[in-house]
């Protein structure tokens, strides 16, 4: 997984991947990865701690179609901000509450290694699609002379809209 094809205007140094999925760490070399030995909810709580330190969410913390109590893996894409981002904080708090509610209703099963590997692949594939989508948007916006900060704001807004649409489809 190599992001060297990114536009020079996109600094992957501003991105941080927070994950408990070893497959992400094995396959990503161009973005800082914060690898956790933690649960799904623990990973979300680490993201909340980073938001309090000024980081912002780039990906939705509950993306994907696997319920929080079914998979033990979660990968979240963040970026360093300048101050507390209340939208990110509200989103991560809601995600922690939702994931905790799922886990309280039914604990994550003790999956076989084969099933766990399937969940690692699913989480990584969703992450990979997200990064590819981000790259395509970079090409589109930067060919139109959009600033990096404006692009990240638009991209974050688009990812929230996609998630809201996805939620509306499963209700």
Task: Please characterize this protein's 3D structure.
- This protein is an alpha+beta fold and 171 residues long.
- It is 54% helix and 11% strand.
- It is built from five helices and four strands.
- It has a four-stranded mixed β-sheet with strand order 2-1-4-3, with helices on both faces.
- α1 links the parallel β1 and β2.
- α2 packs antiparallel against α3 (86-105).
- The longest helix is centred in the C-terminal third of the chain and has 30 residues, at 113-142.
- It starts with 14 loop residues before the first strand and ends with a helix.
- 33% of the residues are buried.
- The model is unreliable at 1-11 (pLDDT under 50).
Please name the defining characteristics of this protein:
11% strand, 171 residues, 5 helices, 4-stranded mixed sheet
The residue-averaged pLDDT reads 81
Radius of gyration: 16 Å
Please state roughly what percent of the residues sit in beta strands, choosing from under 5%, 5-15%, 15-25%, 25-35%, 35-45% or over 45%.
5-15%
How much helical structure, as a percent, in the residues? 40-55%
* Major beta-sheet overview: 4 strands, mixed
Give the ordered list of helices and strands: EHEHEEHHH
- In whole angstroms, how far apart are the ends? 35 Å
Per DSSP, the total helix count is: 5
Low-confidence stretches: 1-11
The shape is globular
Main structural class:
alpha+beta
Question: Biggest sheet, strands in spatial order?
Answer: 2-1-4-3
Total strand count, please? 4
